[in-house]
């Protein structure tokens, strides 16, 4: 009966370290808390750290493998004397050797996967950080922009009715969505657009001004009046959403006038910022 009780005690002593040397080693080993390490690693979500995480995990496995080997040595030999007196050590050593074998195999798998996936991970990082440059929505986005001026020297107006202003001098018309004959811009796609306009006139008891229209709706207006006896300027701009087929144009109000010359003082510009 005594042997029955002694065997479990011997097993416990072997695993926990019955001698002062084994206990001393356990205190000095400072084996890391792998669960704590894994929780910390789990919280890291930056794709750029994937390779570093694999290396850290591989290092932890290697350190654990070394600790198990040292523990096996301690269990097999106490104070320099082979520990053959405890037959229970056979089970413990066998179990630890199995664990060591599994850790070694796991580390080999990680190293293999690291080599195989290094290029893939780098490609994934490139795709994440440079996605806008290669995205079909970016490369296939229609290029829409225009910049114009009146193109004639002299006064434009006043008229007894509101009149659409036709800007006939074209600096650029990417996509050809501004109509040089009607002065109307037609949106080719649904998106957010930016429009600006400038105007100038020599004010002498006159009124200058322009209104930007979206379809039949007045969006913004700028102008000035007075007897300044000198050249005056005004400008405005807006960013608005447009549906495909919406039209934008400039209108000269009734009894207003503007003036242009070779300096292109009156301009109308627009561009697509991005599609919606």
UniProtKB/TrEMBL annotation:
Intracellular or extracellular location(s): Secreted
Keyword DNA damage: no
C1q domain segment(s): 139-276
Stretch forming the signal peptide: 1-19
Key word Transferase present: no
Keywords from the named record: Secreted, Signal
InterPro entries per record: C1q_dom (IPR001073), Cerebellin_Synaptic_Org (IPR050822), Tumour_necrosis_fac-like_dom (IPR008983)
GO CC aspect terms: extracellular region
SMART domains for this protein: C1Q
Pfam families listed in its UniProt record: C1q
PANTHER family associated with the record: CEREBELLIN 13-RELATED (PTHR22923:SF102), CEREBELLIN-RELATED (PTHR22923)
Protein name stated in the entry: C1q domain-containing protein
Organism: Esox lucius (Northern pike)
């Amino acid at each position: 009966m005594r042997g029955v009780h002694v065997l479990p005690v011997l097993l416990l002593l072997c695993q926990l370290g019955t001698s002062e040397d084994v206990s001393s080693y356990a205190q000095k080993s400072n084996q890391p808390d792998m669960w704590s390490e894994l929780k910390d690693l789990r919280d890291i979500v930056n794709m750029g750290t994937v390779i570093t995480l694999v290396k850290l995990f591989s290092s932890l496995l290697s350190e654990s493998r070394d600790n198990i080997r040292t523990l096996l040595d301690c269990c097999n030999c106490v104070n320099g004397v082979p520990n053959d007196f405890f037959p229970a050590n056979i089970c413990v050593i066998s179990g630890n050797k199995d664990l060591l074998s599994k850790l070694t195999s796991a580390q080999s798998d990680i190293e293999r996967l690291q080599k195989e996936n290094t290029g893939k991970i780098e490609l994934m990082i490139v795709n994440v950080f440079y996605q806008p440059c290669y995205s079909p929505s970016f490369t296939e986005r229609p290029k829409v922009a225009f910049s114009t001026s009146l193109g004639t020297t002299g006064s434009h107006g006043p008229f007894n009715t509101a009149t659409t202003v036709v800007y006939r001098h074209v600096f650029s018309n990417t996509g050809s969505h501004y109509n040089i004959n009607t002065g109307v811009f037609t949106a080719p796609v649904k998106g957010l657009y930016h429009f600006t306009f400038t105007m100038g006139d020599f004010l002498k008891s006159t009124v200058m001004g322009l209104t930007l229209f979206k379809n039949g709706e007045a969006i913004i207006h700028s102008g000035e009046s007075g007897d300044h006896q000198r050249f005056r300027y005004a400008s405005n701009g807006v960013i608005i959403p447009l549906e495909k087929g919406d039209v934008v144009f400039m209108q000269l109000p009734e009894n207003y006038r503007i003036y242009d010359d070779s300096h292109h003082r009156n301009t109308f510009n627009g561009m697509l910022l991005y599609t919606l």
